[in-house]
Write a structure and sequence with these properties.
This protein has four helices and eight strands, in the order H-E-H-E-E-E-H-E-H-E-E-E. With 182 residues, the chain is of the alpha+beta class. It has one domain (23-164). The longest helix has 20 residues, at 2-21.
């Protein structure tokens, strides 16, 4: 029994050291609209996210064809009301990662475009994975009132923007027109 504990402890230590060595990395995945509703509401989008060993955090979304960015912040589903995410979009949605759209920058315009009449909006994401399509549920609410599903956006994976290795990236580097030929 002692040998099993020792092996388990060694495995846990190795995993924790690997976790420390495997720092979070920033990724950018571009997606094309997979249906007419998504094409009308958003067009192609690029999502910037931070991926760690056991988590993924979406940081922002950008219009791939224009210079518009909306920042996202992880949200607790209690913000949607007493029934949470299931109350807003239906029982047990596959898209469980919930983010509040920040109204700064183009966030207010994004809220208006994705959910007309809403003053607040959240995005519930499915998993962001390389070469996999993505579903995002848009949930909106007026100033006072319950949150409700506004639309479901479906995207086809387009590609990954590769970042320079071992160099922190400033999101402003992605703005259109900054570099010749862009």
């Amino acid at each position: 029994m002692r040998g099993v504990r020792g092996a388990s402890a060694a495995a846990l230590i190795a995993m924790s050291l690997a976790g420390e060595a495997h720092a979070d990395t920033v990724h950018l995945y571009s997606y094309d609209p997979a249906d007419a509703e998504t094409r009308h509401a958003s067009g192609p989008l690029t999502f910037m996210f931070r991926k760690g060993l056991l988590h993924t955090t979406v940081l922002n979304l950008r219009s791939t064809e224009a210079s518009a960015t909306a920042y996202l912040r992880p949200a607790d589903e209690k913000a949607l009301g007493p029934a949470g995410l299931a109350g807003a979009v239906g029982a047990e949605p596959a898209e469980r990662a919930l983010y509040r759209v920040e109204p700064a920058d183009e966030g207010t315009a994004l809220i208006s475009a994705f959910c007309p009449g809403a003053m607040r909006a959240w995005l519930a994401f499915g998993p962001l994975k390389l070469n996999r399509d993505l579903t995002v549920r848009v949930i909106g609410a007026p100033t006072a009132g319950p949150a409700k599903l506004c639309r479901t956006l479906r995207f086809s994976f387009h590609g990954e923007w590769l970042l320079p290795p071992e160099r922190p990236m400033d999101p402003r580097e992605l703005e259109r027109g900054r570099y010749p030929g862009s």
